[in-house]
């Protein structure tokens, strides 16, 4: 068991103060914040592998855009879910309603593709994040923190680094994400010959704690010449209206050019106790539909949210490469994409019975939920399968569990001011891409930075915000 040398305490405190100084933090109460959990040194990746993933991620964005705009495919794919997942059933109905007339919105696909590098199979997709695809700015801050430590405290940094001589992998997430979103906002603004600066609207959850990551993106957008505002769905219900030629207007602020949903992936985001409704959350869900009926760049469209759900991911993994060309990929692009799609199978009566004879440690049971807390592991899988009713089967899928190799050296994680040595740290790599109506929106073929989340291998939930993970960065070996 590795111990933390006493003389490292001042360096750890310097790192904590750097994080707070640079907005690398989570809100804990009114006027109170704590630093985001972080590793004190980066995780190692082979340079060739990183370049391959960086090239593959934009193809995944291209694929998901094609899926999100294929109305017939999505309706057919998601129809079985309606009875097993009420929320996604309502999204399917909303998708049908929105597309009952020609759509005006500009699809802005701001996506994070999450990979895990299995020690035997290589990197595979865990999930696509197409709504509330956040933490890019925190990914950049983790890289910058490691740069600060490497330059100012090299002895301590090198003790916790994965190798004696490493080069940090640059992470331009804030600049690239801001550039791409600003590009979409300016594109819409030009259509209306508006003399004001473009307006970016972030739809947020009321009272949430993960606000500083959002503010870092807003700062990047303001530096790019874009006005930024934050609103909840409840506020927007009373503040949005229609202008000429499909212009979306926000009270007291004029035309809206780009929208980014950091909310909308769960019922509580649409809940308003002061509204009288026939069905739960119906009014605020209609507010979302109202936005899509206007000429505004938006992420996530309902189609994008459906296209990145686990049900569609499972269907894409079972399709041969030739069928993926339906969504705009060339055959060689489709074949490359297939190498990163992990094994998934649908849950039905046959697979539930088949699972009884399987090693439960080889699989993960997933529903359609976003964020942490929606996966079932190990001995808990069989009882959950037995609890499911037949009409609920289609809302669940089984994914082959990935087992990445642990970091070769002990790592140091810092959470809420406390440092902890981890001897079995594993990492998950999220790569950001941005497409505007299917076209790469950054100067690097759509690539827009990365997010590394690291955790002990014994921990199931590795999210930085909702799990036991820590923000991390990447490094390669020096030649």
From TrEMBL:
Taxonomic superkingdom: Bacteria
Keywords, in A-Z order: ATP-binding, Glutathione biosynthesis, Ligase, Magnesium, Metal-binding, Nucleotide-binding
Pathways per UniProt: Sulfur metabolism; glutathione biosynthesis; glutathione from L-cysteine and L-glutamate: step 2/2
GO CC, alphabetical: cytosol
InterPro entries: Glutathione_synthase (IPR005615), Glutathione_synthase_a-hlx (IPR014042), Glutathione_synthase_C_euk (IPR014709), Glutathione_synthase_N_euk (IPR014049), GSH-S_sub-bd_sf (IPR037013), GSH_synth_subst-bd (IPR004887), PreATP-grasp_dom_sf (IPR016185)
Annotated Pfam families: GSH_synth_ATP, GSH_synthase
Gene3D superfamilies with a match to the protein in the record: 3.30.1490.50, 3.30.1490.80, ATP-grasp fold, B domain, Glutathione synthase, substrate-binding domain superfamily, eukaryotic, Glutathione Synthetase, Chain A, domain 3
EC number of the protein: 6.3.2.3
Cofactor: Mg(2+)
All copies of domain Glutathione synthase substrate-binding, residue ranges: 200-307
SUPFAM superfamilies assigned to the protein according to its UniProt record, in alphabetical order: Glutathione synthetase ATP-binding domain-like (SSF56059), PreATP-grasp domain (SSF52440)
Molecular function GO labels: ATP binding; glutathione binding; glutathione synthase activity; metal ion binding
Family statement: Belongs to the eukaryotic GSH synthase family.
Designated name of the protein: glutathione synthase
Source organism per UniProt: Parendozoicomonas haliclonae
Lineage: Bacteria, Pseudomonadati, Pseudomonadota, Gammaproteobacteria, Oceanospirillales
